[in-house]
Structure prediction request, 658 residues.
Amino acid sequence: GWRQALDRGSLSEARYRNLVEGSIQGVYIHRDFRLLFANKTFARMLGYDSPEDLLAKGDVLDFVHPDEHARVLGYKNRRGIGEPVPETYELRMLRRDGRVIWIENNARVVDWEGGPAIQATNIDITERKASEDALRHSEALLKNAQRIGRLGGWVWDIEAGTLKWSDEIYRIFGFEPDAFPATYEAFLDRVHPDDRRIVTEGVARALDGTAPYNVDHRIVLPDGAERIVHEQGEVIRDTAGKPVRMDGTVQDVTEQRRTEEALRQSETSLNNAQRIARIGSWERDLTTGTLFWSDTMYDLFGVEKTEVKPSVETVLDHTHRSDRSRLKRAIADAIAGKADYNLKFRIFAADGQARILHAQGEVARNASGQPMRFSGTAQDVTELHAAEERARRLNDELEERVALRTRELRETQAELIKKERLATLGQLTATVSHELRNPLGAMRTSAYVLAQSLADGDPRVLRAVERIERSIERCDRIIDELLDFTRSRVADRLETDIDAWLTEVLGEQTVPAGATLRREAGLAGVTAAIDPDSMRRVIINLLENAFQAMPEAETASRPRQVTVTTRPSRTGFEIEIADTGPGIAPDVLPRIFEPLFSTKSFGVGLGLPTVRHVVEQHEGSIDVDTVEGEGCRFIIRLPLAPRDESDPAGPVEVAAET
Prediction:
């Protein structure tokens, strides 16, 4: 073939390329690991689009797995000194995408371009290696499962008289694997003398086909200890029906049988105690999966012994759907040793009656730590739970009533204090305003005369006079605020074009340097009954607060802007005043409408309380929306007309323009 022709040197490179390009095997040639040739199959094997892409790598070691480099270099060195090197061996390579593949590599020395080179022929054996690994893993799992379950398998060749045991059976019988002559006769020698008849008769019935081989018997270990094993077997026959082989299992059930005997001895007294306390007991053999229930367990689930075989599935089928996953997780965690088994879950008895069970359990393990048994109790705590629930509800109701009463008392106390403070404030304001007005009037007149007489005097003196006049005006405003807040005054409402009125009010407002006042009118001629003067004070107060809240222009991190927006609402209209200031701190927000509360170094803290008082006189409301560090919005909601209790039509709705 082409390999032999290449070895003889009778095959040209071009002819060689034509022959190997169609090969299903990957072929490449290298000299001192420098890649000289590769066919398409090998390029595709490594995930390259063409041999040219692969040849660009240059060095063969680039696509050989790093862990294989030492072996490959060793072969090269041995070949160089004439030592034998295997022609065919398995090797890991790296695909272009980084994935590892296994190949069977056949390497030989050939003549290429006038000099010796290595020709490598490759077959992808990745799937075969995966199958071998899976088989080894499966065998390991089987051995581990047999070890955990103390379960071994055997095959008896009846005609040859040989008996083959799995490693676990040797361990069950107290021998090291293969250290015991496994024959049928040698096996019978290890069976307890009193139980040999049970075994031989069971084997005879199985061979005759009258009954399956399924027996329990005792065995005697080399140290004289006795164990109980459970055996099962199946007879294999030839086409004529003659027994030729028997396959079976042996399981060490010593602990299980002893536990069963102990349980039988105490069953009567235990069942009586459990029935009285509504506590059932259970035990699950983790090696066989069998689950034992006491009589009370059947009563709890409302089933008869003859109707149901206890199992985990039986419990889950009766468990409330919302509790199943929690129950399964608790069982798994207990067996794995991650947590104690202690939980309450709901079940439905066979008659549909709902019950609550409190389950507790523990896992018994053998000397090697393997879980062997899972046992515990389940108690019907339905009535106890109902009593606890009633007590909890009563306690919650009591706490709620106490909390409500406490809140009412605090609110009443706060309201009384507020009324008392306002009454005192009203009396004080009436007295103080009268006592202050006269001297303030005299001071204002004197300041005016002084300013007129010093019209051409020292500028510093004139500025001092101006400060006196501003302070007098400030005192007048404080007195006005106190009087407005403490006097009951009926709003003098007039039908007013809201947008036009608000435009006039905003036109009178002085905007601080570096700030802007933005207007968004959205009522389009809508009129409402308001007191223009008192509502004017509301708008001015909110605007002044907004401008004062924003930092000075030179320290502001964003534009200083106040936006006044009007829009219709479902029952009237809204006026919104928003600023770009720092917002209101969460601890301050609940108190901003509280009389005499202020965060400013000036004023008496009646601005916002007066605003709310005026708005409520108009049968409206005012809300605050603020994000600390991002600004604040005051939203005034007013009806279009005063409420008329005799008007069955209710509030007038205003639709937004579209």
Summary: The chain is about 40% helix and 25% strand.
